[in-house]
């Protein structure tokens, strides 16, 4: 099962970073990957058991991932697991850990795993998707960092 980890230092305390990262009303202010980010079921805020729909921009295939929060500890950890089966994804899960480095700076560690489908094309899809996921995750976390730098 392919996996990856991307780490970024953010110029803000982990509680503030966590709050913005999981605020779906504001997600598109900084997220470079998405064209849509919503919570389903009328939820106003993200939380344990909540389901989100995040749709990639058209040039990234417009793939929509529905994920369920399987862990949610404000300020420190959130984890999601994919609950639909969009094109090319058989499984997907991710965790996002936050840790304060100082009163004004924190680190974010984004870890993900996935499997591609169809199974007979995994030998091609896994390396390509691994490269794309790492690249896009790095861009997203840098954009989040830059959002906080701009204030």
Characterise the protein shown here.
There is one protein chain. The longest helix is centred in the last third of the chain and has 29 residues. The chain starts with a strand and ends with a helix. Strands 1-7-6-5-4-3-2 form a seven-stranded antiparallel sheet, with helices on one face. By secondary structure, it is α+β, with helices and mostly antiparallel strands. Strand 3 and strand 4 form a beta hairpin. 25% of the residues lie in helices and 41% in strands.
Give a quick rundown of the structure.
By secondary structure, this protein is of the alpha+beta class. Helices cover 25% and strands 41% of the residues.
Key descriptive features of the protein:
single chain; 7 strands; 41% strand; seven-stranded antiparallel sheet; 151 residues; alpha+beta; globular
